[in-house]
Amino acid sequence: MTTTNASQTGACASRTTTPMSATAAALMQRIESKTATIAIVGLGYVGLPLVRAIRDSGYPVIGFDVDQKKIDALKSGTRYILHLGDDFFSTLKADNHFTPTSNPKDLATADLVVLCVPTPLGSHHEPDLTFVLESTKTAAASLRKGQLVVLESTTYPGTTRDEMKPILDAKGLKCGDEYFLAYSPEREDPGSFGRSAQHIPKLVGGVDTVSTDLAMAFYTRVVKSAHRVSTAEIAESAKLLENIYRAVNIALVNEMKVVLTDMNIDVWEVIAAASTKPFGFQAFYPGPGLGGHCIPIDPFYLTWKAREVGRNTRFIELAGEVNTSMPHYVVERTQHALNDHTKSLKGSKVLVLGIAYKKNIDDSRESPSAEIIELLRDRGADVSYHDPHLANFPAMRKYRTNLSSVALTPATIAATDCVLILTDHDAVDYVALAQHAKLVVDTRNAMSNVPTHLIKCEVVKS
Predict the structure, then answer these.
(1) I want to staple 236 with a disulfide (CB 3.0 to 4.6 A). Which of 130, 145, 157, 189 is the partner?
(2) CA distance 296 to 190
(3) Which residues, 6+ apart, have CB-to-CB distance to 161 below 8 Å?
(4) Domain end: 181, 204, 234, which one?
């Protein structure tokens, strides 16, 4: 048997010479003719961009979510994810080929069911597959001959085959012959220009060859490039490697920041200097801690799974220790900076600038700002925040607060003992900070873009 080379991309790489059942062949024909209906389960930061990519490629789409507020917003054309823009939501509202629904029975009409659901951690850093398993049960309830189910959520190797497949098999259909199952990890980068779902290469691996063939046929018609791998486990592991690579390198530069700061050396200038090397170096930048739904969480999925085979992931766990210690380091730096201004942290007014986990988006998932605010309040600080993209502090897994964003006016800035920059949103007037603040603690090097002659306050890099 001859199979397609794994390095190939595009439609020519979507099929092997593996014999297909009549059911598989019929599904392949619908995929290739773009008459297949695609259902996206989970209409958040991953699912909605994928909806757009699929619709742009010509397939009809069902969008399913258990959150009725999201369905109502889509039906009314109301934006609920900032960086996607108003046009995205108004276009979907007017699109007769997109059907938002909270009725799981509607999934029975789909030929492909793609799961884009969260994979958080439990209270002891163990994988929490609740959303994956529940959405798999939802898909199983309406599973019929000729359906392909694809998981896009980041998870540990073996999830698709060992956790999802038994649930779907219980329906009584044979995988690879009557229904099909594959894994293709999401690679979304919210708010990054030019990195839409259509333009980010996809990895595709099925639990069998025919499932991979069908998934490849679909994705090569939706995105510009798809890469075939031999198994679902390869694709699951590759996604973890991508995110662990980032987590480890961020930990490295965070540790460098702590050491170099004590030596009175500017880590930001050091990174800029090292970046002049055209090979062997990739710049990573320090921050107040890790945020987002991937980098703070995904490494622990492999750490947990590794224990099943009797292995320890010391390097990954050390990186986790460094990164999770950064909020405490930021609070200590803020306390020391206030001490230098003859102020104690207790009773001081601290204005936190930014609660989104990265710039120019409204996503606060796993944002280190939440922990930093809690640490500051525990030590007696009077904390407020400003974020141009988050008017109210959203409820989070571990943190609850009733804070709302305050206006960033000269009066507000001047009345604050310390402005703590945690997210470097572009929509912030940093010159106003420089002109009216008493003290700025900058964890993002945001004030470096303000001309020196305009800075009237002390700026402490943290």
Answers:
(1) 157
(2) 16
(3) 181, 207, 232, 233
(4) 234
Structure tokens at 198: 């259509």
* DSSP-derived pairing of the beta strands 112-115 and 148-151: parallel
Q: Is residue 10 part of a domain?
A: no
Indicate the DSSP class of residue 162: I
Residues 57 and 184 grouped into a single domain: yes
The reply to whether 295 and 401 lie within a common domain is yes
One DSSP character per residue, 376-440 reads HHHTT-EEEEE-TT-SB----SS-----BBPP--HHHHHT-SEEEE-S--TTS-HHHHHHH-SEE
The strands making up 226-228's β-sheet, listed across from edge to edge, are 98-101, 61-64, 38-41, 112-115, 148-151, 180-183, 202-206, 226-228
Domain ranges, residue 219? 18-234
Express each pLDDT in 417-432 by its tens digit: 999 999 999 999 999 9
Cβ atoms 172, 154 nearer than 8 A: no
CB 327 within 8 A of CB 289: yes
Written as one letter, the residue type at 128 is: D
Catalytic residues: 294
My answer on whether 217 and 301 are in the same domain is no
Q: What is the CATH number of the domain that holds 376?
A: 3.40.50.720
Residue 7 lies in a domain: no
β-strands 112-115, 98-101 pairing: unpaired
Nearest to 107 by CA among 63, 71, 69: 63
What is the H or E stretch that residue 65 is in? none
**447 in the same domain as 323:** yes
What's the mean per-residue pLDDT of the chain? 93
- Residue 94 tokens, joined: 């007017």
Residue 242 lies in a domain: no
**pTM listed for this prediction:** 0.90
The single-letter code of the amino acid at 317 is: E
Q: Are 318 and 296 part of one and the same domain?
A: yes
What is the torsional sign of CA 318, 310, 121, 234? Answer: positive
Rounded mean pLDDT, 399-425: 94
Residues 276 and 315 in one domain: yes
Average confidence (pLDDT) over 100-109 = 97
Residue of 416, 420, 426 lying closest to 449 (CA atoms): 426
Percent of the chain with pLDDT over 90: 84
Dump pLDDT digits (tens) for 167-216: 999 999 999 999 999 999 999 887 776 677 888 999 999 999 999 999 99
Rounded alpha-carbon distances, angstroms, from residue 124 to 128, 199, 324, 375: 10, 36, 14, 20
Total structural domains within the chain? 2
* Residue 83 reports pLDDT greater than 90: no
